[in-house]
Amino acid sequence: MSGAGAPDFFYREAQRLGYLARSAFKLLQIQKQYKLIKPGSSVLDLGCAPGAWLQVACQSLGPLKNGGSVVGIDIKKVKVPSLHCDARVQTVSADVMNMPKKQVRALSPQQKGFSVILSDMCPSVSGIPVKDAALSAELGMQALDLAVGQASSAHPAEDIHREDGQLDGSDSGPADGGVLQQGGHLVIKLLESEDVQEFSKICKPLFRKASWLRPKATKSSSREIYLICQGLKYSR
User: Fold this and answer.
1) Which of 58, 131, 142, 203 has the fewest CB atoms nearer than 10 Å to its CB?
2) What segments bear the compositional bias annotation Basic and acidic residues (predicted)?
């Protein structure tokens, strides 16, 4: 809904096309511009409620015969949408930030990790811009940590290790425990603030390319912005 309380274009289009939320058009634009999801991709959708990104991700895989998979994780219980989704989509109700990386990786095909990770997670908004931006940045850092593991801690300006100590030698795998495959892509939603450029500084050495996007479907009153990270590199 728009600020005036009347349905806007993207809201109406979502209803017309069977998407669960207008946010579907954000991922549609990301997919159109960057083509992150390809036939056969394994996609992890963090904060997947209400399910609109699950729909777009599954559509982006192409026909069922192309293979691929989509796993959505959310604290809320999310039912796989009946429209635009097929048997390749599954959802898990859990707090992904308290899940061991081994457990998250076990949800991927052959437990080899995911080729695309989408983080559309958003904190409970307090209405205090500085506080909300800080909470958003914390979620973003946790998503980055989940994706690349200890590789992200190479940046001296930030410490994004989790308190539960999941970054250890026993959680071996891609990027020292990260669940994103080499060459994989990562999308993180953040709230614009002075600190968001830190994400570029951290991600640019880790990925082939990192760029910012404010999708057209973003409400004018929103400070949401997406960091698109393409092609995870490993430099051990």
Assistant:
1) 131
2) 156-165
- Please list the residues that pair with 211 across neighbouring strands: 228
Please, what's the b/e burial string for 58-87 (b: 16 or more CB within 10 A of its CB; e: otherwise)? bbbbeeeeeebbbbbbbeeebebbeebbee
Cα 201 to Cα 137: distance, rounded to the nearest angstrom: 14
- The residues annotated as belonging to the active site are 189
Positive or negative torsion for Cα 117, 85, 8, 5: negative
pTM to 2 decimal places: 0.87
Would you tell me how many other CB atoms lie within 10 Å of the CB of residue 7? 14
pLDDT attached to residue 6: 54
Asked whether residue 107 is assigned to any structural domain, the reply reads yes
Looking at the DSSP assignment, which residues form a beta bridge with residue 69?
42
Q: Does a structural domain hold residue 203?
A: yes
Chunked in runs of 10, what are the mean pLDDT values of the chain (236 residues)?
Answer: 61 96 97 98 98 98 97 97 97 93 96 97 83 90 92 48 33 62 97 84 94 95 94 74
